[in-house]
Amino acid sequence: MKGFRFGSTEGSFYILPGKDGWEASFGNETLGAFDSPQQAADDLARGVCCPHLSESDTSTLEIPEKIADWEIVHV
Fold first, then answer.
1. Residue 73 · residue 6 · CB < 8 Å
2. How much is the mean pLDDT over the chain?
3. Helices within the chain (DSSP H only)
4. What does the pLDDT look like over 32-68, one tens digit per residue?
5. Rounded distance, CA 26 to CA 5, Å?
6. HSE, side-chain direction, 13 A CA sphere, residue 45
7. Which top-rank group of organisms is this from (predicted)?
8. How many domains would you assign to the chain?
9. Alpha-carbon distance 35 to 20, whole Å?
């Protein structure tokens, strides 16, 4: 099974298969559930899914919007 990783200056973001689709995470924090990895990457890049990460606005971390620009990881 494959997932996706982006290493930012604040740490690594992951988009991995979840129970009902895909889940994005940062550290030990789950950031949300998504229908597709592309939707997760887009929302992370725009900073719309993570208001509870008050220390970091994900839209300022240069997270790629295209999932093809993320590193593939095997889980």
1. no
2. 87
3. 37-46
4. 899 999 999 998 898 876 655 555 567 778 899 999 9
5. 10
6. 15
7. Bacteria
8. 1
9. 8
Q: Which amino acid is at 66?
A: K
CB atoms inside a 10 Å sphere around CB 26:
20
Q: Which tokens sit at 74?
A: 């095997």
> Residue length, the chain?
75
Q: Which residues contact 23 (CB under 8 A, 6 or more apart)?
A: 15, 16, 17, 30, 31, 32, 33, 34, 40
Residue type, 9: T
Q: State which amino acid sits at residue 48.
A: V
Residue 36 near residue 22, CB atoms below 8 Å:
yes
Record the tokens describing residue 37, joined without a space: 């990895």
Structural domain boundaries, residue 19: 2-74
